[in-house]
Amino acid sequence: MKGKIMEERIGILVFGAVFVDIKGYPFSLYRPDGRNAGKVVKVHGGVSRNIVEDIANVELRPTFISVVDKDAIGEEVVQKLKRHKVNTNYIRRIEGGLGTWLAIFDTEGELRGSISQRPDLSKLEEVLSEQGDSLFSRCDSVIVEIDMDSKLLKQIFQLAEKYNKKVYAAVSNMSIALERRDLLKTTACIVCNQQEAGMLFSEDFEEMNLEEMASSLSSYVVKAQFPQMIMTLGSQGAIYAEQNGHFGHCKAKKVHVIDTAGAGDAFFAGVAMGLTYGKNMMEACEIGTKLAASVLGTSENVNPRFLPEELGLKSLEA
């Protein structure tokens, strides 16, 4: 068994939690202070889980390091990821391994409120202690939620440094991420939205036009010594900045929005794939923008199937 695992393709390593997303959609105008008739759906979610499936849907065979419950739902999550060609050998089954995200959307597909319950990921420390060297020596790059437990993050970043692997940081909770600015400096690229970037730099970007935002973001990235950063702007697309002072703007794709959930994760996945496999920042943002648009037009949390060539990427051997 050990010999078999050593031969497996690792691809991009993705660390993070799995959630069950419970999403409500009103049939008519949403009223926060009243009863709303509508539909309620349950889907597999979680930032990292969405990202790893997004990558797998571009046929790039990623590896997911996570935990799930010891029940039928946990098994369903694992089997779905396997069908999408995600390497699930390092997912551990524990009590309370699944998180829950409860969300309400309005008729325009915009999130109006949510509550989340995060699972305990400490079991992953054992995975890294036992197999971290093997995983990191064979992976193409690493994706983490930067607001995970600090002890676990320290293990991940140490292994990434040891094997010279780039780490891409997704932000789920900027309040926690603010406490990890030292780690942000060692990531290959940070991706967050306009509000989160405002929290990170104590700046009101909403009062600026695109040119002012791009110039200001560039200045902050250089001063903070962040290698690369992308700030998403919803319908306005995204702006990016690099430590060398270069910055730019990537326009959003026009699409009829049904549900915004998962679009940011798809954008991140596209950026990480692009940068991992040789694209520059503008090209990576273009990939992310295309994947995000494919999610906005559905009630799914992940992008549909693409061939790597459709995104300007090369197919990887299985």
TrEMBL record:
PROSITE patterns: PFKB_KINASES_2. The keyword Glycoprotein does not apply. Keywords: Kinase, Transferase. InterPro entries: Carboh/pur_kinase_PfkB_CS, PfkB_dom, Ribokinase-like. SUPFAM superfamilies: Ribokinase-like. Pfam families: PfkB. Gene3D superfamilies: 3.40.1190.20. Residues 12-299 form the Carbohydrate kinase PfkB domain. One of its GO terms (molecular function) is kinase activity. This is Tat pathway signal sequence domain protein. It comes from Oribacterium sinus F0268.
